[in-house]
Design the sequence.
């Protein structure tokens, strides 16, 4: 008695032909605010940025115990123009490596207050890299991914800029601020 065998190999081969190999994401540097030496890597100009365990805003860091924030406990002040920036510049990898800056953030900002990520090409001035973050982040941590391919091969610094309008110190319009955690420079998919 002869039996018939159904062979599915062509279908499997067809699937293999469709799939493409992908390079996994590679982290070139990261900051999670957990080590005490963060002040050797980051600085603050004109303002309130600090790193540690938050007791206001989200109430906890995204990962680990610590994060950076416009204020860790309570509400931020009016009339603030401040920048948290990476002291050391770094070279952006080639465009073919898909370099990007990724981070987690949570924010609750009052009317007319905002924040955005900045970039400074070595020898240049600070420029806005991200969109403007205003209002609230829906009460959850979110993770932007900012393309750096336009800066491939250049040495840059990155910063988190925050602006708070001066309402005259009356405290009528207060919020907890901007919290940033788990910053990474990555390449690959």
Sequence:
């Amino acid at each position: 008695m002869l039996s018939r065998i159904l062979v599915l190999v062509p279908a499997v081969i067809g699937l293999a032909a469709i799939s493409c190999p992908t390079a996994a994401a590679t982290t070139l540097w990261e900051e999670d605010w957990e080590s005490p030496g963060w002040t050797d890597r980051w600085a603050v100009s004109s303002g309130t940025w600090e790193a540690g365990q938050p007791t206001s805003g989200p109430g906890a860091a995204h990962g680990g115990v610590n994060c950076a924030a416009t204020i860790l406990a309570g509400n931020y002040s009016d009339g603030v123009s401040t920048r948290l920036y990476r002291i050391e510049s770094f070279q952006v990898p080639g465009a073919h490596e898909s370099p990007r800056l990724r981070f987690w953030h949570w924010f609750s900002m009052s009317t007319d207050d905002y924040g955005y990520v900045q970039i400074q090409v070595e020898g240049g001035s600070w420029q806005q890299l991200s969109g403007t973050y205003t209002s609230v982040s829906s009460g959850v941590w979110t993770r932007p991914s900012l393309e750096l391919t336009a800066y491939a091969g250049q040495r840059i610094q990155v910063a988190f800029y925050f602006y708070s309008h001066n309402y005259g110190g009356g405290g009528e319009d207060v919020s907890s601020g901007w919290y940033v955690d788990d910053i990474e420079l990555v390449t690959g998919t």
Remarks:
- The chain has a mean pLDDT of 86.
